[in-house]
Design brief:
The structure is a homodimer. Chain A has helices at 14-28, 33-41, 47-53, 59-71, 93-96, 99-121; strands at 75-79, 87-91. Chain A is mainly α. A two-stranded antiparallel ribbon of chain A has the order 1-2. The longest helix of chain A is centred in the C-terminal third of the chain and has 23 residues, at 99-121. Chain A starts with 13 loop residues before the first helix and ends with a helix. Chains A and B meet through helix 1, helix 2 and helix 6 of A and helix 1, helix 2 and helix 6 of B. Chain B binds a DNA duplex through helix 3 and helix 4.
Chain lengths: 122, 122
DNA sequence: CGGTATCCTGCTGGATACTG
DNA sequence: CAGTATCCAGCAGGATACCG
């Protein structure tokens, strides 16, 4: 017999939460996915634009990640047939679902900088 | 002359935000740091406890990460001299500063699971 | 229990050059 | 502009065995 949802016991399920956490880490793992998502969500649409908006990224990496992200439904690639080599990328709803994570991370990063700066002055 | 902070223009600074994002990715990079932080913040204190709470992690990895995290001020290691091989770990305030990120990621992971399940039924 | 030592593999990602 | 091709290194991380 299937257990019915018990709303009283364990409002938090640690095992389930680690799982969820590990899934997420798997999906957004690596150095570039989140910065790229962030860039496109910020309105950058052209390859070069995105490239310039992310310090340190190479074309190869950007190219690879964009391809994978398109496959995974994170972005749409719009290729203008009239202008060869005019491509635009746009974020899907799915892509935007990472907003909370990205915001939390930006926030943490800013505070971290402030903290380090403090430390140097001490 | 130094630019004074202009509260009107650019309440958001994209360049600064990518930086912050990349800093954060650097700090919590890899498969294990976040799950370990999460585990310790959830009250797991013993090595084995932490190990058991994180599916897939090996002793070697856990050991290495814990050592690094202690060096970086994320956790305190309490070694009981009376009981050799009785060690406890506890989270520092710094460690807890990752809570928002972790929560956002757990949340995303859960929704992701639900989404995938939906897809399979369709 | 709480680790360390050793060995090994793969994959991420960098450098560089070329293309339609 | 928007990529692709090739080549290569480093290191994260897995397997396994051993230790006080």
């Amino acid at each position: 017999m299937a257990k019915t949802k018990n709303t009283l016991s364990s409002p938090r399920n640690p095992a389930e939460e680690v799982q969820a956490l590990q899934d997420t880490i798997y999906v957004i793992g690596g150095k570039w996915k989140l910065p790229i998502i962030n860039s496109i969500c910020n309105g950058n649409r052209r390859f070069r634009e995105i490239e310039r908006s992310i310090p340190g990224i190479t074309r190869r990496m950007l190219s690879r990640e964009l391809k994978e992200m398109e496959l995974n439904g994170l972005i749409r690639r719009l290729d203008d047939p009239d202008f060869p080599a005019k491509v635009e990328y746009e974020a899907t709803t799915y892509c935007k679902s990472f907003a909370d994570i990205i915001l939390a991370m930006i926030d943490w990063g800013k505070k971290h900088r402030a903290r380090v700066k403090q430390q140097l002055r001490a």
